[in-house]
Amino acid sequence: MIFHDWMYLVIVCILGAFSPGPSLMVILSITSSFGRESGIFASLGHGFAVFIYALISATGLSVLINANENLMIYIQILGAAFLLYLALRIYISLFFFEKKFAEPDQNVKLGNHFRDGFLLAILNPKIAAFFLALFSQFLQSDQTLSVHLLMAAIAGIIDTFAYIFVVFWASTAIIQKFILKNKKLIDLVFASILSFLSLSLFVNSIGYI
Questions:
Q1: Which pTM was predicted?
Q2: CB atoms within 10 A of CB 6
Q3: Helix (H), strand (E), coil (C) string for 64-131
Q4: 69-73, 195-199, 200-204 — most confident range
Q5: What pLDDT score does 163 carry?
Q6: Distance between CA 152 and CA 139 in Å, rounded?
Q7: Euclidean distance between CA atoms 123 and 194, whole angstroms
Q8: Rounded to whole angstroms, how far apart are CA atoms 126 and 198?
Q9: CB within 8 A of 100, min separation 6: which ones?
Q10: Is the Cβ–Cβ distance between 86 and 26 less than 8 Å?
């Protein structure tokens, strides 16, 4: 790959990372509910999952999908279920508890948000499709594993820092003041959007079975 190709890869990864979708909604929800550190840990988990998807895409995920055409559908159904789980968790904390997740150990809480960010990305087959389409422009038969690792690392790092940027923006004083003032409404909107995305994804998946 020449320098021009690497620059094109970086630009497309940046545009993909900042595109609106379920990931952005969940990262914002975690940040507004639990604070900046939790949002950062969720971003790290999401970026790590993107790195894995990008690496698998670069080294042959298309071969697996061609061998099992239902693989993407199964992943999509799991992703829909996870989005619904996140929405239900917001609904439950909103209507049945005074405080979200009480006072668990801080390390456990942050670890849970890393897990949420990771699962959010790893159960989103659109990310796999995105990298299959993107890397198809650059993959060559004589490429080494080190090149694939660098491509995946670029994708994962850009994704992580893009969401960390969103987290810092969402945790600024002005935005935090707005969030605190409209906390319940924001949570309700986030949960409703996640529910709609989950059901839409599920119906779309069932249609292909």
A1: 0.69
A2: 14
A3: HHHHCCCHHHHHHHHHHHHHHHHHHHHHHHHHHCCCCCCCCCHHHHHHHHHHHHHHHHHCCHHHHHHH
A4: 195-199
A5: 92
A6: 12
A7: 14
A8: 13
A9: 33, 34, 93
A10: yes
What size, in residues, is the chain?
Answer: 209
Identify which of 41, 47, 44, 43 has the alpha carbon closest to the alpha carbon of residue 13. Answer: 47
List the structure tokens of 1: 């790959």
**Residue-wise burial string across 64-99, b where 16 or more C-beta atoms lie within 10 A, e elsewhere:** ebeeeeeebbebbbbbbebbbebbebbbebbeeeee
| Alpha-carbon span 114 to 18, nearest angstrom | 19
The pair of three-digit structure tokens given for residue 140, joined into one six-digit string: 């060559």
Locate 162 and state its tokens.
């893009």
| 126 close to 88: Cβ distance less than 8 angstroms | no
Q: What's the CA gap between 102 and 157, in Å, rounded? A: 32
Over residues 9-65, the pLDDT tens digits come to 888 888 778 776 778 878 888 887 788 888 999 999 999 999 998 888 777 755 665
Name the token pair of 31: 């940040």
For residue 135, how many other CB atoms are within 10 A of its CB?
A: 20
Report phi then psi at 19, rounded to 5.
Answer: -70, 140
Distance from C-alpha of 70 to C-alpha of 208, rounded to nearest angstrom: 9
SS3 state of residue 33: helix
Rounded CA separation 18/49 (Å): 16
User: Contact, 117 vs 49, CB < 8 A?
Assistant: yes
Angle between helices 22-34 and 71-96 (to 10 degrees): 30
